[in-house]
Design a protein that fits this description.
Blueprint: H1 12-36, H2 42-69, H3 75-94, H4 101-123, H5 128-131
Helix pairs in contact: 1-2, 1-4, 2-3, 3-4
Length: 132
């Protein structure tokens, strides 16, 4: 899943942040191949999940501030989706990653792909006309 033009919202700072998320998906997919080959990926998985957590803090704060500054009327619903994302990342971090590496990685990549398709392509695209 490399960056595709259809993911672009036309807001450079947000598009760059979304590209970081696509890069994380690629990183997780690489770890899946390693785990399938029997490589211990615990430290890498933890690093990716912590990176994902850090990403959400900065990206969601910037996106929400932008929507608030422009008076986006669906901001509260958008924040709720962001909160659900953060909770899911925390859920991944609370799993027994060491003994469920492949399963966790597969769940993470599925979750992120669904997020990109459902949230970025659908939900995020709704605020573009307001903030541009």
């Amino acid at each position: 899943m490399l960056w595709q033009d259809r993911f672009s919202l036309g807001i450079p700072v947000i598009d760059e942040q979304h590209k970081q998320l696509v890069d994380l998906v690629e990183e997780v997919k690489g770890l899946i191949h390693d785990a399938e080959d029997g490589v211990d990926c615990y430290d890498d998985i933890t690093y990716v999940l912590e990176s994902l957590k850090d990403y959400t803090i900065s990206h969601f704060a910037e996106e929400e501030a932008m929507m608030e500054a422009h008076g986006y009327n669906k901001l509260n619903a958008h924040k709720m989706e962001h909160a659900a994302f953060v909770a899911k990342v925390q859920d991944f971090l609370s799993k027994d990653i060491d003994f469920e590496q492949l399963s966790v990685l597969e769940d993470v990549v599925t979750f992120l792909l669904d997020w990109i398709i459902e949230h970025i392509l659908v939900t995020d695209s709704q605020y573009v006309g307001v903030v541009k």
